[in-house]
Every structure is written in structure tokens, then in C-alpha cells.
Design goal:
The complex is a heterodimer of chains A (88) and B (571). With 88 residues, chain A is mainly α. Chain A has helices at 6-37, 39-42, 52-82, and strands at residues 46-47, 50-51. Chain A has one domain (6-82). The radius of gyration of chain A is 18 Å and the shape is elongated. In chain A, 34% of the residues are buried. In chain B, helix 4 (74-98) runs parallel beside helix 19 and helix 20 (483-507) packs antiparallel against helix 21. Classes of the chains: A mainly alpha (88), B mainly alpha (571). At the A-B interface, helix 1, strand 2 and helix 3 of A face helix 4, helix 11 and helix 13 of B.
């Protein structure tokens, strides 16, 4: 057991899951939400010559995905350090 | 110099480069030949992963499909990138900590069951095989054009080259070769896009040019490119470019199947077993997506430009049709491959492309990226460069897939399950036999395709989504999940998905219309339903049969934090 106590192990996993769920919520809203389900609504707006919903489906969602992974990398590194389970 | 000679030279040069790198890096590090990525920076590993990942489907076929499907093509863009978020957040770090060799190894150990391992092996073979069939067609398209032979001969030549490259050469595992392949394919993808964007809109960046107004001197000048596309589509009886015709539920299901499938593809997951640390597994996924995005953010622009250019060339700026006699060379060159056909239905000697009865052209979607530089009248070296890029994309992916197939058969299936007593030499022989059979079968499917490259490949993702993804996710996040539940889930998921695809694509293709589909979901998207079924069946069966044993639950606990991960495993 790398953790000092059972409680810390649980807390680490809880924080981890909560971070992942938050990021996946953004992931879902941008791609499935803006790019698919709400595409007709957003297409009423124009964004640099694109219909907004179409832009999210073909460019915006991909850019968001990249940002999400790097946010995850950074936040998880902080979490690993906080609970002292980072790699030596 | 003509295009054909230039193509030979440039494709030959890139081959020489890959072989040179292979020899150089081999001499430098014989001992860690198979764990080359163990000492490689996450940025490099990300680049190699991107090359491994971006196949002929991404390179050759995707922009072409988007050009014809417009908004509906977004499923490939979002699906094949969004999966990396799942991979980075839910799979890669934990599988890296687990630290075994293949996906069937994880399934077999986590579910303490030889049966689970065998089912996972069969799924891995099925998935990789479906995927590689798509690659063969992609390679075939490249060779048929540049050797000016028909598509069947092109596929055959491609298959022979892939066979020598992977089975005898054994170049897989050398990360730097794939780094070089990424550079070639990204460069080959971007150069024509930048040229064309500048020609048509005056923007250097294709990504912004796509949303810009058309430059002076080009048909439709002053209009927004996308507005022009929508206008042309309406005039010619095609579906509007920015809205599409697929139902919302189908778009949703296909995107989901592709995303989840990405996260479940054995040859992609394997890459994250080889990085030095758990934190590097997360970072590598991020860098891989950065490099993939370079191509994926360019693809929709290429699609848009290509569509406008195609219509301008075939129908003329005044949309009256262009005399066949005056047709540019690329039309005639591609006609030789059988991938463009013109039938003068009204006998006026003019070509005309449309979505209604006026149409006289059959244009294969797979040629758009390759033909694009010719359509835009770019220099011959650009045309040749694109061919080299297509070959790089197909080779790097085929190599990874063949490795999965051959190790699955020889190592997971024969050595660890059926005939544990075979010698290393026999194991190696079986690996080569398996790869050869896989190439032969996929060559046949490459010549007789049930769909275009990207569509064939999409089935592989559906199968991965319906089989591996739930078993791996439950294995990590639900420690009480037992073997009976996981096995039942995988079986139901893959059998259901496979049966649906086979029925609509092979048994009864005539019935393949939205009215007959389950919930209106096409065979491309059915993997999503298979995945949901897999989760439900696994959970219900688990509830009826009790929790996993304590030592398995402890194993799952231990993969949930990074500390204590061992060194990188072989690849």
C-alpha cells in the first residue's frame, strides 16, 4: 500500500474520479452537445465565417479535446504529489 | 519530369529514409530493440503514436468522405480524436501501471480466466483484421493511380510491399522510423492544403481559409467558401454541405462508436504499455492528439476546397458542364484506375456532376486527397509527395496491426492457450504464417470492399467498442466485476455487433436503409448499442454470480495510483 492510510487512498481515488468526470462533462458537452445535439441551434450564429455548430463539429471539438488532456495531465500530477503517490 | 517518375523517386527516397533510420537506430541500441520507446521523450512517443494511429483511412479517405458528406463527415473528425480523451483519462495510465504485454494479457489476468483471455484474443484478431482490410484498399488506391493500373492490381502490389515491409523486415518497434513516417505524412498533407488555401482564399492557414471568402479571380469570388458550397450543393441537388442528411441519433451513435472504439483498439493501447512512467502515459496521449490534430484540423478544409474545385473543374464556372475533350489530365489519369467514370448520358460531349438525374460522373470518394493537388494544378512534386504520404500512413498502421494479429495467434492463442509446448522457432513461424494469411485475406477484401476505406475501418471501431472497452473500463473502475460477467458482456457485445454488420453489409445489403435499422442506427454506429449491451449484460451477470475474489480486487486497487510502476515492458 503506497498510501499512509485507507482514508487517504479513498480520498485520492475520489478526487481522481471527480476530476475525470468534470473533464468528461466538458468533453461530452462540446462534442455531442454543441457538435451534434444542439448543432441546429448554434448554426444560427456565425463565427469567423463558419456556422457555429458546424465549426464545433469540425474544428472546435478537436481543439477542446487537446486542451482537456493537458489540463488532466497537469491536475493529475498535482494530485499525485499531494497524496505522495507520484513516481520517484 | 512527369508525375510518375517523380512519384517513384520521392516514394523511393522516403523508403530509403525509413530503412536508413532502422539500421542506424538498430546499431545504436541492439539490446533495447523492442523497447525503443522506453528511452524516448513523450513528444517523440506521441509523434510515433500519431503515425501508428493515422492510417490510410485518415490520410487518403477521410477528407474525401467529408467532401461528399459535408457535416455528416464530422463523425470521423470528432470520433477519431475524442477517443484520445477517453484513452488518456480512463485507460492509458492504469494499463501502464498494470504493466503487461497485450490487451488479452490484461483481460486474462484481471478476470483470472483463460476463457476471457481466449475471447479477448479472438476479438483482437477480428478487430485488427477488419481494420487492415481498409488499409489494403488505401494502399491499392495509391498504387493504382501512380502505376496507372486498375485498383485490383494496385491492391495486390500494395499487399506484396506491406508483406515484405512488416513480415520479413520486422521494422516495428523502432519509434524513430514512425517519427519519420509522421513527418512525411504530415508534411505531405499540409503542403497541398496550404497551396490550395492560398489559391482559393488568400489565407495561408487552411483552417482559417475554410471559413474565409473566395479570392478574386476564382469562381464565386467574394462569397464565403462555405456559403458557396451550400449554394452549389442546392443548385446541383446535393445535400447542403453544412447540415448533412444523416439522422441525429445515427450521427451520435457513429461518433460514439468511433470514440469508444479508438480507446479500445489493441494496437493503440499497446503503445501506452511502452512508455517509461505512468505520468508519461498521460502526457504521450496528449502529444499524440496534438500531432493527430495537425492533420485532423486540416482535413475538413481540404474537403471543402476539393469539393468546390471538383465542381468548378467538371461543371465549369458557369455550371454548364465542361467539354470532355477539354478535360484536364487528372480526369483521364484517374479514369484508367476505374475510380472516375464519365458516361455521356445526354450525348452533349460535356461532363456534368450533380446529385440528381443530370449527373454523368462517378467519382470514388477515396481519390479526393490524392487527386486534390492535380485538380488544383499544383506542381508535380506536390502530387508525388502526397503519394509518399499515403504510403507512409498505410505502412505504419499496417505494420502495427499485423504485429497484433501475429502475436495474438502465435503468442496468446497458440503458446499460452492451445499448444503450450511449441518451440520459439515454431512460434515465430506461426507468427509469420498468421501475418501472411491476414494479408492474403485482407487483399481479397481490399479488392471487393463493402464500402470506402474509412467506412470499412469504421466497422473495426464498432467491434472494439462493443468488446474491449467495457471489459477494460469495468476492470479498472469496478473492482468487484467478475470473470463470468466480463465474458458474457464481451460475447454479447461482439456477437451482436458483428451479426448486425454482416447482415446489413453482406447477407442482405438491399435492406441496408434507415427504415430497417435498429433505432435508426446504421451498421457504422451499431457498436454503440453493442457497447451498452455489453455493460448491461456484464453488470447483470455479475450481480447473479458474486464478486471477484479478494486478490483480484487488490490487484485493481494497486493499478489505481502511479507509485511503484515497473519499467516499460517490451513491445
Amino acid at each position: 500500500m503506497a498510501f499512509k492510510s485507507e482514508e487517504l487512498a479513498k480520498a485520492y481515488w475520489r478526487d481522481n474520479i471527480s476530476l475525470v468526470l468534470k473533464l468528461l462533462a466538458v468533453w461530452f458537452i462540446v462534442s455531442y452537445g454543441f457538435g451534434i445535439l444542439l448543432v441546429d441551434v448554434l448554426n444560427q450564429f456565425t463565427f469567423f465565417g463558419f456556422k457555429l455548430g458546424f465549426w464545433f463539429a469540425q474544428q472546435g471539438s478537436i481543439i477542446t479535446f487537446v486542451i482537456l488532456i493537458f489540463v488532466y495531465v497537469k491536475r493529475m500530477a498535482a494530485l499525485d504529489n499531494k497524496y505522495e503517490v507520484h513516481e520517484e | 519530369m512527369d508525375i510518375q517518375t517523380l512519384t517513384f523517386i520521392i516514394v523511393g527516397l522516403t523508403f530509403a529514409l525509413y530503412i536508413a533510420i532502422a539500421i542506424w537506430s538498430r546499431a545504436g541500441s541492439t539490446s533495447d530493440f523492442y523497447v525503443a520507446s522506453g528511452g524516448v521523450h513523450p513528444v517523440m512517443n506521441g509523434m510515433a503514436t500519431a503515425a501508428d494511429w493515422m492510417s490510410a483511412a485518415s490520410f487518403i479517405s477521410m477528407a474525401g468522405i467529408i467532401a461528399f458528406a459535408g457535416y455528416d463527415g464530422s463523425v470521423y473528425l470528432m470520433g477519431w480524436t475524442g477517443g484520445y480523451v477517453l484513452l488518456a483519462l480512463c485507460l492509458a495510465p492504469y494499463l501502464r501501471k498494470f504493466g503487461k504485454f497485450t490487451v488479452p494479457d490484461f483481460i486474462g489476468d484481471r478476470y483470472y480466466s483463460q476463457t476471457a483471455r481466449t475471447i479477448a484474443v479472438i476479438c483482437a484478431i477480428l478487430i485488427s483484421f477488419t481494420y487492415i482490410a481498409g488499409q489494403m484498399r488505401g494502399v491499392g488506391v495509391v498504387f493504382s493511380r501512380f502505376l496507372e493500373v486498375d485498383i485490383a492490381t494496385g491492391v495486390f502490389i500494395g499487399a506484396v510491399i506491406v508483406f515484405f515491409y512488416t513480415v520479413l523486415g520486422g521494422m516495428k518497434g523502432i519509434t524513430y522510423t514512425q517519427v519519420a513516417q509522421y513527418c512525411v505524412l504530415a508534411f505531405a498533407y499540409l503542403v497541398p492544403a496550404i497551396f490550395i488555401s492560398f489559391q482559393m482564399t488568400g489565407h495561408i492557414l487552411p483552417q482559417t481559409g475554410f471559413g474565409a471568402t473566395i479570392a478574386d479571380g476564382v469562381a464565386g469570388e467574394g462569397q464565403y467558401l462555405l456559403a458557396r458550397l451550400d449554394g452549389l450543393s442546392e443548385e446541383l441537388g446535393l445535400a447542403a454541405y453544412t447540415s448533412g442528411i444523416k439522422s441525429k441519433i445515427d450521427v451520435f451513435a457513429i461518433t460514439c462508436a468511433l470514440m469508444v472504439g479508438t480507446a479500445g483498439l489493441p494496437h493503440v493501447i499497446v503503445r501506452f504499455f511502452t512508455v517509461p512512467k505512468v505520468s508519461d502515459a498521460r502526457l504521450s496521449a496528449g502529444w499524440a492528439l496534438v500531432f493527430i490534430s495537425v492533420v485532423y484540423l486540416t482535413a475538413p478544409s481540404i474537403a471543402g476546397f476539393a469539393k468546390v474545385n471538383l465542381i468548378n473543374t467538371v461543371n465549369g464556372p458557369d455550371l454548364q458542364g465542361v467539354e470532355y475533350e477539354a478535360a484536364p489530365d487528372w480526369v483521364k489519369n484517374w479514369e484508367k484506375t476505374g475510380l472516375i467514370k464519365w458516361e455521356d448520358e445526354n450525348g452533349d460531349g460535356k461532363m456534368f456532376y450533380s446529385g440528381d438525374e443530370r449527373n454523368e460522373m462517378t467519382v470514388d470518394r477515396d481519390i479526393m486527397v490524392l487527386a486534390n493537388p492535380e485538380i488544383a494544378d499544383l506542381p508535380a512534386w506536390v502530387v508525388a509527395l502526397v503519394a509518399a504520404g499515403g504510403v507512409a500512413a498505410a505502412l505504419s498502421t499496417s505494420a502495427g496491426l499485423l504485429l497484433v494479429i501475429s502475436t495474438s495467434v502465435s503468442h496468446d492463442l497458440l503458446k499460452r492457450t492451445l499448444t503450450p509446448n511449441i518451440t520459439d522457432k515454431q512460434e515465430l513461424m506461426w507468427a509469420r504464417v498468421a501475418a501472411a494469411i491476414a494479408i492474403a485475406l485482407s487483399t481479397w477484401f481490399g479488392i471487393n470492399p463493402p464500402g470506402f476505406v474509412a467506412q470499412v475501418v469504421a466497422f473495426a471501431f464498432g467491434l472494439a467498442a462493443a468488446s474491449f472497452f467495457p471489459a477494460i473500463i469495468l476492470g479498472i473502475f469496478y473492482k468487484r466485476m467478475n470473470s463470468t460477467g466480463a465474458i458474457a458482456g464481451m460475447l454479447v457485445g461482439i456477437i451482436f455487433t458483428l451479426a448486425y454488420i454482416i447482415y446489413f453489409k453482406f447477407v442482405n445489403p438491399a435492406a441496408n436503409v434507415a427504415d430497417n435499422w435498429l433505432f435508426g442506427i446504421s451498421p457504422e454506429g451499431i457498436g454503440t448499442v453493442g457497447m451498452v449491451l455489453n455493460f448491461i449484460v456484464a453488470y447483470v451477470v455479475h450481480k447473479l454470480t458474486g464478486d471477484a475474489p479478494q486478490d483480484t480486487q487488490d490487484l485493481v486497487e494497486s493499478i489505481r495510483y502511479p507509485r511503484g510502476a515497473g519499467g516499460a515492458t517490451g513491445h
